[in-house]
Structures are given as structure tokens and as C-alpha cells.
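task queued by scheduler; priority normal; single chain, no ligands, no partner chains; default sampling; output format set to C-alpha cells
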Amino acid sequence: MAKLWIGVDIGKTHHHVAAVDGDGRLVYSRRVANDETSLLTVMAEVSTYGRPVCWAVDVTTGLSALLLTLLWRRQVQVRYVSGTVAFHMAAAFAGENKTDARDAVVIAQTIRMRPDIPVLEPSDRLLAELTVLTSYRADLVGQRVATLFRLQELLTGISPALERAVDLNRKAPMMVLACWQTPAAIRHAGVDRITALLRRGHVKNAVQVAEAMVAAARQQTVNLPGQRAAAVVVGQMATEILALEQRIAAVDDLIADQLDQHPLAPIIESLPGMGPLLTAELLVHTAGMTEYDSPAKLAAHAGLAPVSHDSGTVCGNHRQPRRYHRRLRHILWMAAFTAARECPTSRAYYEKKRAEGKNHRQAILALARRRVDVLWALIRDRKAFARPAPTVRAAA
């Protein structure tokens, strides 16, 4: 019996469902509301055709969560057609119209013609919660970075010396700026009051920070244009950044609690450079390391493996891939970068690649690729990474 291929163009309030048969003929097309009753109605209507079905979606985030859950409960196979794949596949069909109905047909035709489209598997509870927490943390960090850049600009307009004197990425200067923003206000507060404030916030180098900020404030006695309004905004932004840091720390604690329950977390975290956050993101973006059947495929998905670019008599020509999972590559890059500084084994491999003529970026990428093999072996054997024992020189 011929199979039925169903493509779904995902939307916020409504989806469009289209089905094609084995010959590519459109046999079903409908716009459906994103609620349980409507989706179950569509599934029942499709089942009346009496054929095996394969569904495909173009979004895997919360917009499609209800549909995916209902399909998985029915043990229906679901594939993921990325937006890039759907965009390029659309050029293979007649017409240039861009509608939800046409997009759904393109998705259905794609899974009919391409058996290599990946199959989506139900996420377990831990991975689903880690996905939410890591995404939320990324949003909070983005807000903090944007607010910090704006605060630095405004503080420079109040006192350039004050902006240079302290590291605004630290908690202590933010605590001071939340209370006093102008050079005159900081001079009036004095070292003792600022030190007392910082000590209540459990800042270790309270005296040094207070003295640095007061010394910077004494370098400027004039008021700059717009200083009064800028001071109000700086105070509010500093308070907002402190609140964001508390929320980020709370999310980090929740992520750590979830990682304690995942069986692979201790193994991944044992690899030098893989902290709790990178471990959580790696598990999220690799579906718990279940999407790959070899380390080579994981490396290729992360853009760590070169791709062949041969033509005619030109052979052995390789170039950097252009289509890869950029966040996954960033995770493996950051872990390798940290390990190259802290782990003697990783540092030795990095130095080896530098000696071969590779630049810093190429050497880190090579190290990241090597670490993929190591990580894969650790997970396969269910063993934690064993750091080499430090060598002890014999006495002369």
C-alpha cells in the first residue's frame, strides 16, 4: 500500500496541513487551528485514507509542541524539514507563490523524495526542561549584555574617568552605580560609605573598589551636558543588571539540579572545559547524544569536519562547511578553548597543531574535532575522563 506523506507549515495560531500520495498528487489540504480538538480532527480525517503516514514539520520549538506530542502519542513517525531545506526545495516546483498551503505541500514533497530527512524523536522530561532553562538563560544574558553596553555609553557621558576606573562586568561597581552615579555624588558618599555598602553585599575587595571609584570621581569637577538625566537612567540600569544577574544565578541553579538527574551529565562534565552550562546545551542540541551513530557525524553536524570540493581532475580539495549547527560548534569551540589553557593533554595537542603550521583558530578547531572522538568514546564506555597524573621529576 502506498504511503501518505503529510507536510505541516507551522504557525502560531494555525497550521496548514497538506498530504501527497506516492505519485506526488495532492490529496489533502486544510488550515487547522493550533488546539487539541482541531488537530485530532485532522488526524482522524487523514486516517480515513487507510494508508501508512509520515508527517513532517518545519519548526520544532513551542509552536509545534502540541502537534508533536499528539503525533508521538499515536506513535506516528515525524520528520524535520528545516527552513533552509524547504526554501531550496521550493525552487524545484513550478510557481513562485509563497503561501502557507504551498509551503506545506513543499514539506510533504520533500519527505516523499528525500529519505535522508531526519526523524524527530520525543524528548524526555529532563531534556525538555533543560531546553526551556537554557533558552531562558540565553535571553537573560542577552538582556544583560545589551543593558551593560548602553550603561557604559551613558556613564562615559557622565564621567569618562569613572567608566575607565572600574570593571563594569563586576558586581561591586554596579552596586555603587545603583546608589550614586555622578562624580559629585560619589565624592560626597566617600570611601567609608561605599565600602560599607559593598561589604553588606559580601564584596571581597570592597576597599579597593571604593578607593578607585572615589579617586576617579575626584578627577572631574565639571558637569557634562545631560548628566542629570543620564544619572537617573544609569541608576535604573545598574539596578536592572543586578536583578538580571540574580535571575541568571537562579537559572544556573535550576540547570545544575536538572543535570544531576541526567546519566550522561557526569561523563560529559568530566571532560576538561565542559562546565555545567556547556554540558546542558550540548545535551539539548544533540537530543541527549542520541541523534548520531558515529563521532564523524557529530563533528560534521558541528562544522568541525572539512567537506570535499572536487571537480574534474581536481581531487583532495577541501573547504570549510557552510551549513552546520552553529550553536553546537560554539559549544565545542568554547570547551576546546578552555581546555587548551587548563588541560595539559589538550594544550599539548594544541601546540602540536601550531607546530604543524596551523593558526590559532585552526588549532582550536582541530582540538575540538579530536575531543569529539574522546567524548564519544567516554559515552560509549560509560566512563568519566581520567586526567593524567602530573609527572614527578626524579631527584638528581
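post-processing summary
- The chain is about 60% helix and 10% strand.
- The two ends are 82 Å apart (CA to CA).
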